[in-house]
Amino acid sequence: MDKKCFVTYMKYHFMPYNKEELMKLSVEEKLQLIEELIESVDDNEDYDRNHLIAVARERYNDYLKNPADVISWEEVKILFREKYGVQD
Fold this sequence. Notes:
The chain is mainly α. It is built from five helices and no strands. It has one domain (about 5-85). It is extended.
């Protein structure tokens, strides 16, 4: 999923959830939820798991080459909220 698609998805399809309740889940329960969410993606949607894996690997390799060129997840969320008005 490219940046434009991701932003569109987050802006228009962000579903509310109870973050406090999700954070109470055990690691095993969180991993199970992640697996179920990934499996629930309809095969007919524009979703390419191999592409996502390739992008994740590329970003990880970029991080290994330049670990100082990253920002924290908290900073990303702040920037995203400021730019798109999305709340978590």
